[in-house]
Amino acid sequence: MKPKTKRRDDDELEGVKKIADIKRHRSYVLYGRSGSGKTTLAADFPKPLLYLDIRDEGTDSIADVEGIDVKEIESFDDVEEVMLWLRRNPKKYKTVVLDTMTQLQELVVQEVADTRKRKLKGKQAGEFGTLQKQDWAEVSSKLKSIIIDYRDLPLEVVFIAQERVFNLDDEESDSADQLAPEVGPALMPSVKQVLNAAVTVVACCFVRRKTVTKEVKGKKVKREKSVYALRLGPNSVYTTKVRKPREVEAPDFIEDPSYQAIVDVITGDY
To answer: 166 Cβ partners below 8 Å, 6+ apart?
Structure first.
């Protein structure tokens, strides 16, 4: 019998690193209404960039941006194949953008309905009564899995989603303790929770109206101006999140947002 070797008390545990030496790529959720600047902001991320157009057809707004390749997504299998290809070719791109996760969810819902041969009776897949509990569980499982798989890729990952207002279920609406509505990514609650927990940043894109003063023919004139903005700091209504050191304070929002501005917020340099 081989004698047991005693481990000395001063032996180091294998695989332990200084926290300052750990470098990871970041992942982001950008959500908001149509026309709020989500795709434009995503196009500012590091290049070369792979843009997955998931039935969104939103490439017109970024057609003049160099360093972007587009892959049109027609099925959930397409999304999985791209993820596996990126694993095998980690240096081909610096960023991958999924636009939108809301459309990906609808695509998966339709595929599950087709696979289970659900009779939709003139309804769209996902409407009340078209899917059963096990169907929704399959949809949720697929989306959660692909979120983590993409999050773990060695590049910047941007998940784009439409905006949705979440309220309490109808049966709870008369409760004296009912909660205020919450605005977040338009996804199933279970999927939304996994996505928000998995990423580094959750931010809301919106268009802000502000008053600016201009000089016209020697006179100061006040005019309203529309500015693209991004909610980042803690908010009682909009879902936001920034993983950062405790001493770093994220601003409520930033105007004319960019990739570098978001990174500066994370590092405390904004």
So the answer is: 181, 182, 183, 184, 189
